[in-house]
Amino acid sequence: MSSEVNAPKAEKKKNRNYLTGKEIRAIVKSNNKVTRALEKKKRRKAKEEEFLTTLKDDKNILEVEDLHTYFFTEQGVVKAVNGVSFEVPQGSTVGVVGESGCGKSVTSMSIMQLLQGPAGQIVSGEIRFKSYDFKLDEKGKPIPIWETDEEGNPVFEEKKDKKGRPVLDKEGKPVLQEKQKRDEYGTLQYEMEEKVFNIAEMPIKEMYRLRGRQIAMIFQEPMTSLNPVFTIGNQLDEVTFLHFPGSTKADAKRRSIEMLNLVGIAMPERVYKSYPHELSGGMRQRVMISMALAGNPRLIIADEPTTALDVTIQAQILDLLRDLKKRINGSILLITHDLGIIAEMADFVVVMYAGRIIERGTASEIFHHPMHPYTIGLQKSKPVMDSDKDTLFNIPGNVPNPIDMPDYCYFRERCSSCKKACFGDYPAMVQVSPTHYVACHLYDENKEGDAK
Ligand SMILES: Nc1ncnc2c1ncn2[C@@H]1O[C@H](COP(=O)(O)OP(=O)(O)OP(=O)(O)O)[C@@H](O)[C@H]1O
Ligand code: SF4
Ligand SMILES: [Mg+2]
Questions:
Q1: Which end of the chain is more exposed for a tag (fewer CB within 10 A), N or C?
Q2: In whole angstroms, what is the distance from residue 238 CA to residue 167 CA?
Q3: Percentage above 90 pLDDT, the chain
Q4: If you measure from the C-alpha of residue 334 to the centroid of ligand 1, how many angstroms do you get, rounded to a whole number?
Q5: Could you give the CA distance from residue 133 to residue 150 in angstroms, rounded to a whole number?
Q6: What is the pTM of this model?
Q7: Is 371 in the pocket of ligand 2 (CB under 6 A)?
């Protein structure tokens, strides 16, 4: 008889690298119970007070606090984002770096509430976002801003039908109406107000208020985000119709062409009539950016926006993003595994490892004074032009299994700076400067700081 058969039950289970049918059924049953409750919560009807909140610091546009996003799979619960906290100050670019699978995209999908349910769920934590949205009247309609003359009297204009022809009264005279203000692109203006929402508590239906108009997302491969059966113009006009009530077809077209112009597309009229497959990769990414811009968002989440592009186009797209940020006076959450892009673009950097943030600080702190052994390793693995070394440094070992994370530092098996404390609990986040935080036992003496 083999020793495997003689091994105690618990030991046998530990040594196996597969699950029995019975175990899978038990996991599925427990998953269903949790995900059903979370799905129900997302689909509930809720009053705005239930998801209104306040920011810890009014200078921020986004604050993520202790976010846990899990995937409930047949193999067990994947803790893709496991207690992540960071903020995006208004007007800044925050870069998120980390190796493949560390939870960068899942963090951004959580902010947009675009996780694929029922498996993917925000389990706990807060995502506070400062929105700047239409003020609504008692009937739930946006309140127009009317034009006034120098003395404050209303200004009137001829009423037009959908085709842009003047509407006439019974006597054949043009009907007049109060003139609504328009922005520089000719889009109708409404009264706005600031509100802070906790996205983690928002029902899915309410997210339509934020997606596109407040937070826009630019993905790695634009072809997967553009609809192949509609023209670029069709898809761009749709954004204006969705986000700017009262826009006519002519308003939308003017705005779309203007947006294509802004992102540096030559012959915007022609691109307006093209289908996505008729454009190059770089042009498609420009179109995606113009689409993000059309909603006039305050936060742009760019998930590997240049990975599919060649180096020259990459540089142009990054320039464009920088330009847009200034234009909309917005902020960017830039996700990439390319440290070069982060160095060029980011004001603040968040370093993720296996679903957690292990270090964050200003770009200068992370690049000039990296503290976590993983961040130091990342810097060393960067290619350098004038280096005399033939091979790049690589961090030995692998990330732990996301279904069965250890309770000690996740980087321990790969770390060459390990000390006694590393065999204890997972290290707490320690503050080492007003803006610099690190989760590593090497800095435990700084624990008295205002760590979070
Ligand atoms: N639909 C899913 N079902 C199960 N697990 C998932 C799912 N989507 C993502 N994950 C897991 O979540 C973890 C984080 O994935 P994520 O896509 O956020 O990584 P990433 O940091 O964006 O990586 P990359 O740089 O490759 O894009 C991974 O372990 C991944 O396997
Ligand atoms: S806590 Fe210990 S094992 Fe983890 S990164 Fe720091 S030194 Fe290495
Ligand atoms: Mg990703």
A1: N
A2: 26
A3: 53
A4: 17
A5: 28
A6: 0.86
A7: no
Q: How many helices (H) and strands (E) does the chain have?
A: 13, 14
Amino acid at 380: K
Compute the distance between CA of residue 142 and CA of residue 132 in angstroms, rounded to an integer: 13
Residue-level length of the chain: 452
Who wins on pLDDT, 390 or 424? 424
Nearest to 202 by CA among 122, 101, 304: 122
**How far apart, in Å, are the Cα atoms of 131 and each of 170, 207, 212, 261?**
45, 11, 12, 27
- 189, burial (CB in 10 Å: exposed 0-12, middle 13-18, buried 19+): middle
| Probe target for ligand 1 pocket from 31, 71, 352, with the most ligand atoms within 8 Å of CB | 71
Residue 219 C-alpha to ligand 3 middle, in angstroms?
9
Between CA 322 and CA 99 the distance in angstroms is 24
Any alpha helices (H) in 94-161, and if so which ranges? Answer: 104-112
Residue 148's pLDDT is 92
pLDDT surpasses 90 at 21: no
Name the more confident of 6 and 119. 119
- Protein residue closest via CA to atom 7 of ligand 1: 71
The average pLDDT across 254-276 equals 91
CA distances (Å), origin 280, targets 92, 222, 322, 357, 388: 30, 10, 22, 36, 37
- Residue 3, pLDDT > 50, answer no
Summarize the confidence of residues 435-442 as an average pLDDT: 96
